[in-house]
Amino acid sequence: MIPAGAHSAANATPAxxxxxxxxxxxxxxxxxxxxxxxxxxxxxxxxxxxxHLGDAARYDAEARFPRAPVEAAAKLGLLRTTVDKEYGGSAxxxxxxxxxxxxxxxxxxSTGVTISVHNSLVNSLLGKWCSDEQKRRWFPKxxxxxxxxxxCLSEAFSGSDAAALRCEAKRDGDHYVGNGAKLWITTGxxxxxxxxxxxxxxxxxxxxxAFVVEKQWPGVGVGKKERKLGLRGSPxxxxxxxxxxxxxxCLIAEEGQGFTIALDTLDGGRLGIASQSLGIARAAIxxxxxxxxxxxxxxxxxxxxxxxxxxLADLASDLDAYRMLTWRAAILRDNGVRCSSEAAMAKxxxxxxxxxxxxxxxxxxxxxxVSGATAAERLLRDARITEIYEGATDIQxxxxxxxxxxxx
Length: 408
Description:
- By secondary structure, this protein is α+β, with helices and mostly antiparallel strands.
- 51% of the residues lie in helices and 13% in strands.
- It is built from 14 helices and seven strands.
- The longest helix has 36 residues, at 258-293.
- The termini are far apart.
- Residues 1-24 have low confidence and may be disordered.
């Protein structure tokens, strides 16, 4: 007997046949579960976070670099996820990095941004754009954590408009002589290797080149340390270049390719900040959940207000949705597919969620939210930067819009 409403095989059209065979039996979407390997890696990172990231509030209060947690991360191989095995890396890729960074940032955002910049803005860039000889020169120190890396793009007159940078590198024989100042450099005072973008020609875009500059070279200096609202354990400084003689073999790729390298690398960097935002949002949501769960009457019945429960539901739903956005972009990047629009979507949505969730946590927790009795107040301060660095929210909107209109 054929169920009511079904077609018999004799009367089936080709489309009907496809619907009852191919479509019905073949999965139509990717599996949203992490692989067994990545689930094991996530558990490994969770163990690291529980053991080493319990002092986030102290690092924040003292504006002190979380050196011990970063060193522990290096020993566990967490500073090498985007480096090929040939050069000492684990080659786990961008998705693994996103999974790792969410877990770390849910505990300590200052540690998280340090590891994010090192992996996504330095190691990833060198791995994609440097020669084999250059990789063998620098990766041994970077993957072990002996050296930390910093990404030096922003300047006083070139924040969102990166092509307006003024730092110069003039060719002088077998060297480039660099002069200028880089601003808002994450890990600036702790890094030993800087990826520096400088002007080597007059053309606004094609006149920009990228170099590796080592901190020990004469003329390289660390300027003022910024006083910040959040991420206080992560030092943000000026990097000063005064007649720095950079060997020509420290040029990354070719002269004039710096702007292309910068934009390509920022796609990966935005995945790092999207993951940071997910970690902040998750921590805030956990605070709200625990607060609501604790509100019960003498008989154990929940007494939390419906609006607070609705807030929790909406935030948790958005967290799952934006995690999928982030993972999608990471998988595209791991597969060698350009993901500028997708990374911008992930970063824009996740960063706004982090701020919304942190504000909600402070509101729901009341006095415990604003007094420092819980992490809510710190999360609120840490969340703000996620909508600013690696491209402000409005810049992400431009990237997305331009990506969409270029397809039409």
